[in-house]
Design brief:
It is built from five helices and no strands. The two termini are 21 Å apart. The longest helix is centred in the N-terminal third of the chain and has 34 residues. By secondary structure, it is an all-alpha fold. α1 crosses α2, α1 crosses α5 and α3 packs across α4. The chain folds into two domains: 61 residues; 71 residues, no CATH class. 66% of the residues lie in helices and 0% in strands.
């Protein structure tokens, strides 16, 4: 049964590690596609769409969505947009929330904190100084 308990403990770590790798991969691919100006032909936009779907999935799992949604909810209270917020197209509203033009919450902070936590967890997991003798 020791092997079973060990496998159960490893599953959440593996899940978090894979999610962290997915986030880093999405970020790296976005930079690569942007540097290569990968939007000059319609077929090239497929890569951006796939990246957007992957990014959305990771954002929902990492809590980034909570920050973006909070920014969106605060958009009508922003002094620069309070008179026009309800008249803006929803795509503009969401872009302003994602880019933190409105709202107090930094959208990338949850992802960065998750990455830092994962790094510390992986660095200390089964560290010789922490094992019992």
């Amino acid at each position: 049964m020791i092997g079973s308990a060990s496998s159960e403990a490893a599953a959440p770590l593996l899940r978090r590690g894979l999610l962290g790798l997915a986030g880093l991969t999405i970020l790296g691919l976005a930079v690569e596609l942007a540097v290569e100006r990968h939007w000059t032909q319609p077929l090239q936009l497929v890569a951006w769409a796939a990246l957007a779907v992957g990014g959305l999935a990771a954002a929902l799992l990492l809590g980034i969505w909570e920050h973006i949604e909070g920014n969106h909810d605060a958009g009508g209270l922003d002094r620069n947009y309070m008179d026009t917020w309800d008249d803006l197209p929803s795509t503009t509203q969401w872009w302003l929330a994602i880019s933190k033009t409105v709202g107090p919450s930094p959208p990338l902070a949850p992802g960065a904190l998750a990455q830092v936590g994962l790094c510390v967890l992986l660095a200390t997991l089964r560290h010789p100084a922490l094992t019992r003798r």
